[in-house]
Amino acid sequence: MNKPIPLARYIAIVPLIAVLLATSCKKADTQASGADWAYYLGHPSSSQYSTLDQINRSNVGQLEVAWSYDTGEQDMYQTNQLVVDGILYAATPNSRVIALDGSAGKLLWSFDPDAIHNGLSDNDQRGLMYWKDGDQGRLFTNKGSYLYCIDTRTGKLVTSFGTEGSIHLGENMDVEGAPGVYLNTPGYVYRDMIIIGANVAESVPGAVRAFDARSGDRRWIFHTLPRPGEFGSETWPEGYLGKTGGASDWSGLAIDTERGIVYISTETAGPDFYGGERYGENLFANSVVALDADTGERIWHQQLVHHDLWDLDLPQPPTLLTVMHEGKERDIVAQGTKMGRLFVFDRVTGEPLWPIEERPTAESRIPGVKAWPTQPFQVKPPPLIRQRYTENDITNISPKAELMGKDVLAQSGNFGPFPPPSLDPVVMFPGYDGGMEWGGSAADPDGILYVNVNEMPWFYQLIPTRQTDGRPLSSGELLYRAHCAACHGLDRSGNPAGGFPALADVGERLTREVVMHFILNGGGRMPSFDRLSQNDQKDIVDFLYGIETPPSRRTRRDDIPPYVFRGFQRWFDDEGYPAIKPPWGTLNAVDLNTGEIKWKVPLGEVPELTKRGIPITGTENYGGPVVTAGGLIFIGATNDGKIRAFDKDTGDMLWEHDLPFDGNATPSVYAIDGKQYVIISCGGAKKKPVHGGILMAFSLPD
Description:
This protein has 702 residues and is mainly beta. The chain is globular. β38 (642-647) and β39 form a beta hairpin. The strands form 12 sheets. Strands 2-36-37-38-39 form a 5-stranded mixed sheet, with no helix packed on it. Strands 3-42-41-40 form a 4-stranded antiparallel sheet, with no helix packed on it. The termini are far apart. Among the domains are: 31-78 and 584-702, Thrombin, subunit H, CATH 2.40.10; 466-560, Cytochrome c-like domain (Cytochrome Bc1 Complex, Chain D, domain 2, Orthogonal Bundle), CATH 1.10.760. Helix content is 10%, strand content 30%.
């Protein structure tokens, strides 16, 4: 039976009652950007809303290219640009920072972190942080494990920050040494503090930290993976800290600047798919956590996945907005998930606006591996995607694809978003890339939330870290299975659709030194594996280059689990299309005043299928929407290389324009001298081999 969960089980309010009582009556700040787009996603509330209305329903069809700027770089390009006082600031695909005239795209200055530190990895960078200290504007950017502070007037380092203008993000993590720590999603500057999450390896405990924006000194830290004795540590088994990591916040955060509350959204704990040595609810993994912005103290939390075994990170930052609920105005925080479900909470107390039920899920099929018996399901809003792959969902793109789909489903089965850990492949749907993804959700003052989602089936399977007869694997193969196979495949064929290259022929393409550099420093979607010993790193490289390494002396190493994830495998049909009936991607409007879906439309088109008479299917999409006071939603995100404008009230598409590469980024909206612009980064997708690095700005004709 589905029983409502006791509120106390998921909300734990620290002794800040006086603060809450003092702040709960404050009216939330205006959650929008104006002429400037001075924050990532427009505002610390992560609202992705602009008050500009020069471009509106009546004239959006006249939009044309105002200017473009080619960075000269080729890679995935996910940056949401900042615009302050007419100057546009952007990170390039390779993490240079450029300042452009926002009205013409003329380069003003460029900053290259590679001129400061050698051998830095290029990780996906989605934005920058801006702060004005008196007359001096400061930009904060990241490359590798360094956070840099740049003077916006000159593009030079502010040498009073950190060590000659930078700090190493692996320091002050309250862990041994200085591990590789990155930012793919920026935070915000609150008062005079930089508040950021962290992208860490599965073995590094995560944290959210605040740094002094002038000096770079750490002000506070919140351990998203609690230390023994801290609140939440009781949800872990004995000795957990030496066997796990992660639970960090890589997807971004939001800040209620009036109340001084930070809202974070966290990932799974490591290892992502094997939880045999971390059985428990595993706080604060997969949680929305509210923190005091001045001290980092926890105010409340809500965990949305218990004991995650499926890599169901909370994939986008929380979104702050205001609604009318049961006749009263409520300031809320909404959190999207990879399962395509929205959870909505009171911003101050953490109380759910609608009930959340604990429902039973499938038991593990692997001895010694336990799944948590129940998972939280919200009653409202309804899920934005299908929650289980059924026979009715088998693709009918072609008779052959339909027959193959029936065979696979009959063999694998589907159990919804929480399939049982199994040594045989089962269908994972909803999938690892959502549902929702990192582009965020847009929210308008009417209490409507706009979000794009994916509906893609995948496979889920664990494999043993030993040979089928129980004998040990060679050291190199064992380490490869444990640390590399999840992304690059058991057979080293890679996952190009997911942005992970094949390694079967790596010896023909790269030198050993280059491969060792990537293992040590990371790059793209790959984290650093600097915590592996030099011998382990060497054994992995030997395995990749076909050099035999001795078998492990033991059938089991304490630092390697007995089972690991087989790898990210999308389920495609024989033509390469998703093996599920469309839609494959949609744009949605959800009325959070009532908890009902207002409208849903396909997002993206596959032209060759349209020519075959198949209705528009939507496509897989990465990057989010922005909504404006002009009644419009602007979004790229799709893999058909277009940017589109939709009517926010009806979902009707009003305009579209070709881009030089896929616009897998969230657009920015700004105005200079009374003229409104929409700009998006175009760099191609992780699903495509061809990338670029072009900024495209649009405006109305003069």
